Structure formats: C-alpha cells, structure tokens
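pinging the channel bc i need a second pair of eyes. not urgent but kinda urgent?? the chain im working w is below, pasted from the shared doc
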Amino acid sequence: MTNLLKISEAGAIALHTVTYLASEPERVATTAEIANALCVSEAHLSKVLQRLSRAGLVTSARGPKGGHSLARSPEAITLLEVYEAIEGRLETNDCMLMRPACDSNCIMGDLLHKVNALVKEHLSNTRVSDVSSLMGVKNA
C-alpha cells in the first residue's frame, strides 16, 4: 500500500534534532539536552544520532565537552537528506496497491502523483536553515 507521507518516530526525531542543532550551529549539544528539548527518549535519540552521523549530517564528540553538532552548515543540508538518512529513499508511487489494478485509470486520479511530487519537492528544496528559526526551542 502506498503512503502519501510516512515519517516514523525516528524520522520525526531526526528532522527536529537537525533543526534544533541548526538553531545555534556553532554550539555543541549533548544527547540529554536534545532529548529534553524534544521530549524524546535519550536511548531512541542516540540511535537516531548514530544514523545521522553515518549519513554525514551530524558529528559527535565524546568527553566532558562532547556532544553533537551539524557536520555541514544548515544551508548545505536539505530536509530530504535528513528524511532519507532515516527512512531510506523517498519513493513516489502513483498507486495505492503494490501492483496496479486500475489499468492506469487510478480511482484517486492523479492525486497520489501530485501529493508525492509536492512532498519530494518540498523536502528537496527546503534547507535546514530555512526552518531552524521555526523550531521554537531555545538551547539551554
């Protein structure tokens, strides 16, 4: 079954974490600080941060002054990169079924195509810097 927009909890945490880090890109934030600001589990956040780090979006440093920061400038990271680091490649199916049964006359018309294209366009064209001021979370 196709989904118009599927963002898992991990994906939502990733998008908000990167936006949080972008609100003060020169600063290093601890896992506990980010988890507290986003009201999420530190354990789940740690797993998300590992995936963001593997994708080259976040850097981590250990030790008393350690924490997490963006690996690149907020202007250089798109929401699509963050989404795909967690969710995998954004697919744009035009059918609700795995195998189309409507002979190209979808019961939804071209709605699925339009929505999928709009979502992909938005995520591709929106930089983390574009939304970091919308976060509404102030770093402690």
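so The radius of gyration is 17 Å. and The chain has a mean pLDDT of 87. — does that match what u expected or am i reading it wrong
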